[in-house]
Design a protein that fits this description.
alpha+beta, single chain, Dna Ligase, domain 1, DNA polymerase, domain 1, binds magnesium ion, 416 residues, five-stranded mixed beta sheet
Length: 416
């Protein structure tokens, strides 16, 4: 049977989700002005996690420091990240997809693949059903997605990227020469700026050049294994199946995809702290603790690497999870591969009281618990956006924690 795969991608996800929330409250639509999610405007710290299309016109990039973005676009409206809001919206749009697709693979917080193979009797026209899904998400949830349609995951993914927002594109085999091949090689999934440059030096400037090139030449530029993959991708070939995931229910996780590669420990640690904080605060509000911590990284070779370890005792303490994340990250990252994605996930869960209390409670732990409780209560009173990341994304664990708590208290008092 001929395969049919959709890739559903939320347009500027974090920003759209924040914008949708504000529009519901009668506030201006962030999507229509130069705006971005991330960091602290006054302190000019943190990184840009998402930006609006008007901000993109100023050259603002995801993953770049806030200070740099503000230099390019001084009027940039900045909003603090709110990972709980993102998780909620992520689940909501994937639930819409699950109503129509037999198999849904969550690829990241704002992207999923749908395997629509064999649904021809129910939905004879793929574009019509794609439109139904897209419009239902827009009309019921208040944000837009792009849907890419193809016979392979790579084609679906490339197609969803063609023209945004709120669009459906097909990339069937017969359309590859006309729609895919004229694009610059840097647009191909997994090709970052540095690799694009190397390929261009070898006179492989477009995806078509790459598709028609000798495999050996491609391999000489990017290495043997990745060479095969890139050559296949350029030809729309990709045999990887759409996986359903059930492990999500068994753990708490969060990840962030970055447009600008992460290349140093400082920025990686800032992001890990933000991720650990968001995951732990969700666990605390659900009354859940976890004992196993995993860090996932995806390099610009688009290979996922993951590393996990068990803690001595189950925890929901941000500082403990962050400390282990840093360790795991140091062990899993080779320090050379620029990173595109960082993720933190916690498994081996149990409810509060399910785990035996340690006989010798240590003081540091109690202090950290109090700190988390203070942060959580301020979050509850003033909303998630008041304190997240802005302070949390400061580097250095103890400095970061202290800073975060002070920041939290200050914000609380300010708004009181
Ligand atoms: Mg997206």
């Amino acid at each position: 049977m001929e395969k049919l795969i959709f890739h559903v991608d939320v347009n500027s996800a974090y920003l759209s989700w924040e914008a949708a929330r504000r529009v519901k409250n009668g506030e201006p639509d962030l999507r229509l002005i130069p705006s971005a999610i991330g960091g602290d405007r006054e302190k000019r710290t943190g990184v840009i996690l998402a930006k609006s299309i008007p901000a993109k016109k100023y050259g603002v990039k995801t993953g770049e420091p806030v200070a740099m973005a503000l230099r390019k676009c001084p009027q940039l409206e900045l909003a603090r990240p709110d990972f709980r809001l993102y998780e909620k919206n992520s689940k909501a749009f994937m639930d819409v997809c699950r109503k129509y697709a037999p198999v849904v693979e969550k690829y990241s917080i704002d992207e999923c693949f749908l395997d629509m193979t064999g649904t021809g009797i129910l939905y004879p026209d793929p574009i019509a059903i794609a439109r139904t899904i897209k419009d239902e998400i827009r009309d019921t949830l208040g944000f837009t997605v792009n849907v890419g349609i193809g016979r392979t995951k790579i084609c679906a993914k490339m197609a969803s990227d063609f023209e945004k927002p709120d669009k459906i594109h097909t990339l069937f085999p017969e359309e590859i020469p006309q729609k895919l091949w004229p694009l610059p090689v840097g647009d191909l999934f997994t090709v970052g700026a540095a690799t694009a440059q190397k390929l261009q030096k070898a006179y492989l400037s477009t995806i078509g050049d790459l598709a028609k090139a000798d495999l050996a030449l491609v391999q000489a530029v990017v290495g043997k294994k990745w060479g095969i993959q890139l050559h296949e991708y350029a030809n729309g070939i990709d045999n990887s199946p759409v996986h359903t995931q059930s492990e999500e229910a068994k753990g708490y996780s969060n990840s962030v995809t970055l447009e600008t590669d992460v290349t140093d420990y400082d920025r990686a640690n800032q992001i890990l702290l933000a991720l650990a904080d968001s995951v732990c605060s969700r666990m605390r509000s659900d009354g859940i603790k976890a004992q196993c911590v995993a860090v996932t990284i995806r390099g610009n070779d688009f290979k996922n690497r993951s590393h996990q370890r068990k803690l001595q005792e189950p925890t929901d303490i941000t500082a403990e999870v962050y400390a282990l994340c840093k360790e795991l990250f140091r062990e899993v990252w080779d320090r050379r591969t620029p990173l595109r994605l960082l993720g933190v996930s916690l498994t081996d869960l149990g409810h509060d009281g399910y785990f035996q209390q340690s006989l010798f409670p240590d003081q540091k732990r109690q202090k950290n618990e109090k700190l988390d409780a203070a942060v959580d209560s301020i979050r509850q009173r003033f909303g998630n956006t008041t304190i997240q990341l802005g302070g949390a994304m400061k580097t250095g664990e103890s400095v970061g924690r202290k800073h975060k708590a002070q920041m939290a208290l200050r914000n609380g008092q300010k708004e009181d």
